[in-house]
Amino acid sequence: MKLDSKIPEGPLAQKWDNYKAGQKLVNPANKRNLDIIVIGTGLAGASAAASFGEMGFKVKNFTIQDSPRRAHSIAAQGGINAAKNYPNDGDSVHRLFYDTVKGGDYRAREANVYRLAQVSNDIIDQCVAQGVPFAREYGGTLDNRSFGGAQVSRTFYAKGQTGQQLLIGAYQALMRQVNAGTVDMYTRTEIVDYVIVDGKARGVIARDLVTGEFSRHFGHAVVMATGGYGNTFFLSTNAMGSNGSAAIKAYQKGAAFANPCFAQIHPTCIPVHGEFQSKLTLMSESLRNDGRIWVPKKKEDAEAIRAGKKKATDLSEEERDYYLERRYPAFGNLVPRDVASRAAKERCDAGFGVGTTGLAVYLDFKTAIERLGEDTIRARYGNLFQMYEKIVDDNPYKEPMMIYPAIHYTMGGIWVDYELQTTVPGLFAAGEANFSDHGANRLGASALMQGLADGYFVLPYTIQNYLADDIRTPRMTGDEKEFVEAEAAAKAKFEKLLSIKGNRSVDSLHKELGLVMWDFVGMARNKKGLEEAIEKIAAIKKEFWTNVKIPGSGKGMNVELEKASRLADFITTGDLMARDALNREESCGGHFREEFQTEEGEALRQDDKFAYAACWEYQGEDKAPVMHKEDLTFEVVKVAQRNYK
Amino acid sequence: MDNNISLTLKVWRQNDAQDKGRFETYKLEAVSTDSSFLEMMDILNEQLIGEGKEPVAFDHDCREGICGMCSLYINGRPHGPDDDVTTCQLHMRKFKDGETITIEPWRSAGFPVIKDLIVNRSAFDEIIAAGGYTSISTGGVPDANAIPIPKDDADEAMDAASCIGCGACVATCKNGSAMLFVSAKVSHLALLPQGRVEAARRAKAMVSKMDELGFGNCTNTGACEVECPKGISISNIARLNREFLAAKLQD
Ligand SMILES: Cc1cc2nc3c(=O)[nH]c(=O)nc-3n(C[C@H](O)[C@H](O)[C@H](O)COP(=O)(O)OP(=O)(O)OC[C@H]3O[C@@H](n4cnc5c(N)ncnc54)[C@H](O)[C@@H]3O)c2cc1C
Ligand code: SF4
Ligand code: FES
């Protein structure tokens, strides 16, 4: 496998311009004869499909939801970054670039991140022109706020519903193209495999989730924008349908999977409360601006609280341990996500956790309410407090909130070069599904930026460079042997699943996988645990393929069958994550290996050995994958140990 | 703290669009009142799978009240007995021990049943495709701060834009009208200078698409506003009517 990152020549700031100056174009008459398949209608997929349609290509766009507007991107709350520097607080393209590389713990490719920062400003212009109702100042200009890991205010937002509004903007642009006839929309349709002809991606096999029928679709190029694989853990902040199947299928067809172990754990989620729990709800990071995080100083108090004999409000100031303020006086409660998450785990593991399970810490607004008044706090966080109260049935104005870390985002994903092309020619990956830009840790409000950058401003250029060589390739009918074989293989997998007729429900197996992931491949990892995890995952895989129970048939809608097919791929993802975590003998960003920490318990990178992206190549079912390295070189950024003390 | 209740569920079962459909009754024991309504449905499905029966199909995704996918008609109300929430945000503490709960799909001419509790809402996408956008393409747009927008207008546009496209307004309307949904989109865009340009044309195109797709007429009963989980105001319908009249006058 050859990993050519195709980074353009020239100084960092000119690379993208140089690329665009030399890139091949497709003339309008030829665009009509070129088909592009886009999988996914989240921010990355919808923005790409709409843009391709406007450019004149013929687009087929697929989503598993009933409408493109419901892609998981809709759930993003906080905001989207851009280097506009409207508040005149010293922001610039360079600073956004720098913060992103540093925040990612120096495990991202400089050239890609710089381009991301460059196009960030165009995104905001584009969205405003679409009618995205961003928050505004009284003077009528756009408002900004600050987010973790940055010293400037560069985050644009639309109430607590930024993802929703950005997605609706992209969705509307997409529906305009559907109306114009350039985009064919396939809802409730799942892509179950890719078709490779002469080494190039030339199409997909789809399964209609309503009828259960399979179909073949040709494209001169294929873009996958299918989101992240956080649901490998079963419990995460992702939507229930979010899955990693399209990525695993790409991997099995020859696309390298990069840095699978880089998963982000968000520190402020509502804690798990019972076995029946189906997902975890995020409480926005913005709460850490005013909330103070603590646990009891004395174990007896923590025990009494867990037993229901004491309440948080019974403890005096002296009896509370504001551990983030204690450990990180400079950043306090605003340390980055990975640092805050690990600190919470450390306290709970040491026996100071609260809640009935002991797996929770307090997020307390008492000081803020005393200082600013309840009304100000209500104006800032009212909707979040209401959401908390609906779920937990506790009043956070009176009792401190309880929070605990949860899986939230996956930085790893399908390896792409500068053009967002995978190691399979003609197969591109965009949004959370690819591995680019965020390194080992993503900063808040940067995922939305990346998804839209990929779809609106990067792929429209780079895909032309690829398609320009394809203008003489005629459309295929779908009857070619590669299509027929791929469909037969996909069908066989679903028939196999239905034939097992075992005793275990899909969810029960998924929960089991999730627990293994959380215990051994979660917030803190070590060699022994990871080796154990690989064995346990293999056992779950065996149990799944011999004992899963799927009622009903392959005809018509069968939700359990859909879930089973995705779980088969989550099991593969889980194994890959564990292997990658085992290989990476250092701590960086979201990946913390207990063997590699400083005396104070901080993450310790091993730059001399691990300044690379680990790219895994599939070798066949039940064979260990092979790892290839893309070495990361830093020409502009000065690599340093992150310090938030 | 933890409290368990027992329930009798009367659930609508329908194999596909052609099937006539019927209610089935199920008993559930020891459901924690801390669980959400959809988690209660998960528990029911685990029980059915254990008995070798087909689980109940229902739509859901984000489970935090934003994607608009969940859609149950619970004891005669879209999204159930709590106010200002979607079904996924409804919790079992709203129900009593021993209660019988009736669960049906959205019922409306515009939303045919696909299976059990799942309906087809793609008519909403068709209405948006008819004109629910600004006609601009990627790139070549002015700087985001080029046109100042009064904060009040931006906030009002945001309120209208917060519609999640769930369809509860249609499901609760005795006429099966989609006016609240359409008016939310027309208002959102008409309130902003970027969308103002095409406001009249948009209103006309969206309303005629809505009529074509078999949604009923609005007779101002106001039921939609009461059941909307996002508090979309019926005043948007008045704005839509103004835009629509303006378009008619231009004809
Ligand atoms: C609760 C929450 C809050 C967040 N808040 C923020 C925030 O404030 N700021 C920020 O920058 N980021 C935030 N993020 C992260 C961000 O929302 C996501 O990373 C981003 O939206 C991902 O977009 P995407 O387009 O890559 O994928 P998604 O939005 O996940 O879309 C995936 C698409 O692929 C489709 N799909 C998947 N598999 C298949 C298949 N096999 N066949 C066909 N279609 C398929 C799905 O139907 C969907 O349309 C948040 C994430 C969560 C969970
Ligand atoms: S107007 Fe309200 S009820 Fe109707 S679709 Fe929108 S959010 Fe749902
Ligand atoms: S599941 Fe998304 S709104 Fe209910």
Automatic annotation (TrEMBL), chain A:
MF terms (GO), sorted A to Z: electron transfer activity; flavin adenine dinucleotide binding; succinate dehydrogenase (quinone) activity
Active site positions, chain numbering: R337 (proton acceptor)
Keywords, ordered alphabetically: Cell membrane, Electron transport, FAD, Flavoprotein, Membrane, Oxidoreductase, Transport
GO term, biological process aspect, one: anaerobic respiration
Record-annotated FAD-dependent oxidoreductase 2 FAD-binding domain positions: 35-448
The protein's required cofactors: FAD
Topological category with respect to the lipid bilayer: Peripheral membrane protein
Reaction(s) catalysed (UniProt annotation): a quinone + succinate = fumarate + a quinol
Family: Belongs to the FAD-dependent oxidoreductase 2 family. FRD/SDH subfamily.
Designated name of the protein: succinate dehydrogenase
UniProtKB/TrEMBL annotation, chain B:
Gene Ontology biological process terms, A to Z: aerobic respiration; respiratory electron transport chain
Any one GO molecular function term: 2 iron, 2 sulfur cluster binding
Cofactor(s) required for function per UniProt: [2Fe-2S] cluster; [3Fe-4S] cluster
PROSITE patterns (UniProt xref): 2FE2S_FER_1, 4FE4S_FER_2
Top-level division of the source organism's lineage: Bacteria
Domain 4Fe-4S ferredoxin-type: 154-184
Gene3D superfamilies for this protein: 3.10.20.30, Alpha-helical ferredoxin
Family membership: Belongs to the succinate dehydrogenase/fumarate reductase iron-sulfur protein family.
Protein name: Fumarate reductase iron-sulfur subunit
